[in-house]
Amino acid sequence: MSPAAPAGTVAPRPPLRERISPPVLAWLVVLWLLLWGDVSWANVLSGLAVALLVVLVLPLPRVRFGVRLRPLRLLALLARFAVDLVVASAQVAWLAVRPGRQPRNSVVGVPLHSGSDLFVTLTAELTSLVPGSVVVEVGAPSAHGEGFLYLHALGVHTAAGRERVRRRTLLLEQRLVRTLAAPRALAEYEERCRADGSATTRDAGAPAAPRPGGPGVPRGSRGDS
């Protein structure tokens, strides 16, 4: 094992073959063509030249996500997301047309367990795509916690309703981690759930146990009339 570089020294640049990534080049060429609004050989070649200049002069750091795709779980994840999308769309449509007073809403705090920026982001993105829920704040994983979300939930104004939103979000995170996480990350996630007393890894119907508060971790939810 090579010794670590002394503090304050500049890390050596990665080899040329690592700096030139075909997917990045292709994406930059596509952006160049979109900027010009015309697909031609001149634009493709000039876009390729610009893309090469960018990746050589301004190389991006290598990002390792530690992802392992499980195809069957991915199909289950997509199927469940499609069902949630249809059900939530029907619920929002009914809230929009039903007679009576306007629906009351809540802001719900959801402490997560993945400990990964990737899974916190994916959970937030998929949650926002479902009608009736909007992510209003995202807390990245840190030394004080594994990340959290604050959600604005439409038509939710009771403690039981807020707990359903929280449990649904934790189950979405669970499906994402079990679909994409590497074995080590998955084991760490399961261990955090057990240590936290979360029921998401054992019983999808049981409410999660309260989580000890800490800096940067949601302590509760509030209603919003």
Q: What Rg do the Cα atoms give?
A: 22 Å
Distance between the termini: 60 Å
Order of helices and strands: HHHHEHEEHHE
* Low-confidence region ranges: 1-11, 201-217
Beta-strand level of the residues, as a percent range? 5-15%
Major sheet attributes? 4 strands, antiparallel
Based on Cα principal axes, name the global outline. Answer: globular
Strand order of the largest sheet: 2-3-1-4
Q: Give a count of the beta strands, DSSP E runs of length 2 or more.
A: 4
Give the class from helix and strand content and strand pairing: alpha+beta
How many alpha or pi helices?
7
Percent of residues in helices? 40-55%
Give the averaged pLDDT, no decimals: 80
Features:
single chain; 225 residues; alpha+beta; four-stranded antiparallel beta sheet
How is this structure best described in words?
This protein has 225 residues and is an alpha+beta fold. It is 50% helix and 10% strand. It has seven helices and four strands. A four-stranded antiparallel beta sheet has the order 2-3-1-4, with helices on one face. Strand 2 and strand 3 form a beta hairpin. Helix 2 packs across helix 3. The longest helix is centred in the middle third of the chain and has 27 residues.
